[in-house]
Specification:
Layout (H helix, E strand, L loop, with lengths): L3 H5 L15 H12 L10 E6 L2 H26 L4 H20 L5 E7 L20 H16 L3 E2 L9 H8 L6 E9 L14 H4 L11
Helix pairs in contact: 2-5, 3-4, 3-6
The structure holds flavin mononucleotide (FMN).
The site of flavin mononucleotide has 12 residues, from helix 4.
Length: 217
């Protein structure tokens, strides 16, 4: 059943991917889904580099692997404080993260979403807090691509740790200096079951009624 709600509620992070190639027509549909995404002022300030060559994939893996293992140290420290059941889940996620870091170069495709900040009307840029709005003109496309990937039976996961060494990524993929990298999404057919049930907070927790803090329902 390819019902949109079914796709959304089973779009989980799939970090173990087979190296089998992805047919061009499947990739075209995933990219078309990204292109349908809304962006501020319909400017479509993003582009996606569809990385398939061994040299480029290896360069991304060489950036991602140390970034992941650095991040994972803090992850383990936080995980050790959790109740046993959650800690066990955390350890499974850690193992999946390690797998991705060790095998990223084997994914048949890595999507690198980039954007030109000059093409964005960033309405919160001058506020006295971290600006968040600009990303909204890119992550809509990322999510569309991931939903399409899930619909096509492909595994995928949104990753961002490559940003810790963004200059190296830009140099490897010839991304212009003034562009930003927002998401790296490895794509491939899953090693195991792939997508499946997800665990998320309830709408009672996430949604408020009329004003902030008044529970929905
Ligand atoms: C903005 C963002 C950044 C993320 N960065 C990474 C990353 O660098 N590496 C990684 O393995 N997963 C990354 N993820 C995936 C999340 O860890 C994952 O979506 C979350 O834990 C929920 O997992 P689930 O869908 O399997 O339940 C990122 C997700 C988002 C939305």
């Amino acid at each position: 059943m390819n019902d949109i709600y079914e796709m959304m509620s089973t779009l989980r992070a799939v970090r173990r991917l087979r190296s089998d190639p992805i047919p061009d027509d499947v990739l075209d549909r995933v990219l078309q889904a990204a292109a349908w995404a809304p962006t501020g002022g319909n400017m479509q300030p993003w582009r996606v580099v569809v990385v398939r060559s061994d040299a480029q994939k290896q360069a991304l893996a060489d950036v991602y692997r140390p970034a992941w293992y650095r991040y994972a140290k803090g992850y383990d420290a936080r995980n050790d404080q959790l109740p046993p059941e959650e800690a066990a889940k955390g350890r499974r996620n850690r193992a999946a993260g390690d797998y991705l870091a060790d095998h990223l170069h084997e994914a048949p495709v890595i999507l690198m979403f980039v954007a030109d900040p000059k093409m964005m009307a960033i309405t919160d840029a001058k506020l006295d807090r971290i600006s968040m709005v600009g990303g909204g003109s890119v992550y809509t496309a990322v999510q569309n691509a991931m939903l399409a990937a899930r619909t096509e039976g492909l595994g995928c996961v949104l990753t961002t740790l490559h940003c810790l060494a963004e200059d190296e990524v830009k140099s490897a993929l010839q991304i212009p200096e003034d562009w930003a990298t927002l998401a790296m999404v490895p794509l491939g057919y899953p090693v195991g079951k792939g997508h499946g049930p997800i665990s998320r907070k309830s709408t009672e927790t996430l949604a408020y009624d009329d004003v902030f803090g008044v529970a929905w329902n």
